[in-house]
Amino acid sequence: MTRRDDDRQTSFANAPDPEIASGSPRQTPPGRRMLALCLMAMAVGYLLTGWGRQWFAGRGDGEVEFETMNTYGRIFVPRGSGSAESPARLAELALAEVRRVNDLMSPAGPDSDIRRLNEAGAGEWVAVDPLTWTVVMEALRWHRLSGGAFDPTIGPVKRLFRFDQGELAAWPEEGELAAARAKTGAEKLLFEREGMRLGWAVDGMRLDLGAIAKGFAADCAAEALKRHGVTNALVDIGGELRVLGMKPGDPPAAWRAGIRSPRDGNEIAERLEVTDAAVATSGNYERFFTFAGKKYEHIIDPRAGAPLSEGPSSVTALHPESCLAADALATTMSVLGVEAGEAFLREQALGLFSRGVRVIMLEDKPGAGWRRVEMHVDAEGGVRVEETALPE
Ligand code: AMP
Ligand code: MG
Predict the structure, then answer these.
(1) How close is the Cα of 328 to the center of ligand 1, in Å?
(2) For residue range 58-102, what is the model confidence (pLDDT) as tens digits?
(3) Minimum mean pLDDT among 48-52, 98-102, 107-111: which range?
(4) How much is the pLDDT for 11?
(5) Which residue minimizes the CA distance to atom 12 of ligand 1?
């Protein structure tokens, strides 16, 4: 047997090279033909087994689509991910990270940290997982730095409304609203660093990490991929994206993220090209209701204690490395609006973000018209603002 045949058999048994699998036209002596037939049968058998199929599938792109946190997600690990491991396996492994975040932080999870906390009365302590602790501490930091615009305790007010895209039958009664407002305010969330315990100062409060947990889950998935040597991948948790590197190809291309039009959620208003970045959008095209001719979105203005009705209709935040920060920023800027949002960015630029943060606001405000405002934080903490009127 020549050296070359040896190599071929090895590759035939372990790696189905299409040129070899389709058979060689060379003349072969009968003994060797028999051997070749046996090897071919073994290879076909191998491919028909679960292991073989898994191996074969593992060489293509790896992609998983799933439901989590009341939304849909997708993890895409391309064939040229940069890691020697199978893209399919890598995508599964990243999904396990997302599931872990969901199991800990979903308020509906059977034994989630947040459910246990939300069922606790005033003065009861609930020990939480270090991951939950990290997200809650970040949420409290955003609450403090945003002057209360970001508030993960708005749940009791949010529950008085239904954001099912329909017309709200009746505005909640003032007494009902006042009672709910009394059960909000992140300063009433108590925490004890030792033991990572959380508790409430007032009965009936609820923690809602919906504005930050999707971004955090995207970060967890992306960081797990990076630990396995992945340099190119895309993680999308309900529109909160974290992309690594570029989309492999010839030539490689930037990943593309679409911003949906706040006027019509089925239309893409703008496409962004991103590499190594996080992108998060808060918009009023999916979860909203209408009342007396106005559209109200699922973001609560904690200062008013009511859903947002005016202000930017869609806010997209880009951050170079943290989807949690992009997610928190998109929600915060939605509450603040263009002017206060710009002031917030100027104040917090260096404290909260590294360079390269961008915010794109598309709004259709009665009186102000249909406009696009982009804010860009530079390395020195300066903020550049560009405003454009959009064509009707
Ligand atoms: P996002 O789509 O990331 O802007 O998150 C919106 C979700 O965050 C809502 O569905 C609420 O669960 C929660 N939320 C609403 N208003 C606020 C707020 N002012 N601060 C923090 N979380 C909020
Ligand atoms: Mg958010």
Answers:
(1) 9
(2) 569 999 999 999 999 999 999 999 999 999 999 999 999 999 999
(3) 48-52
(4) 24
(5) 210
Nearest CA to ligand 1 atom 5: 211
Q: Distance, CA 284 to ligand 1 centroid (Å)? A: 11
Written as six digits, the tokens of 87 are 């893209």
Query: Which atom of ligand 1 is nearest the CA belonging to 212?
Result: 3
CA 352 to ligand 1 centroid distance, Å? 19
pLDDT in tens, 310-333: 755 899 999 999 999 999 999 999
Distances (CA, A) of 21 to 13, 39, 58, 59, 97: 10, 11, 18, 16, 38
- Taking phi over 0 as left and psi of -120 to 50 as alpha, with beta for the rest, 196 belongs to left
The answer to whether residues 80 and 87 touch, using CB atoms and an 8 Å cutoff, is no
Ligand 1 atom closest to 300 (CA): 16
Give residues with Cβ within 8 angstroms of 348, minimum separation 6. Answer: 145
Nearest CA to ligand 1 atom 3: 211
pTM, entire model: 0.85
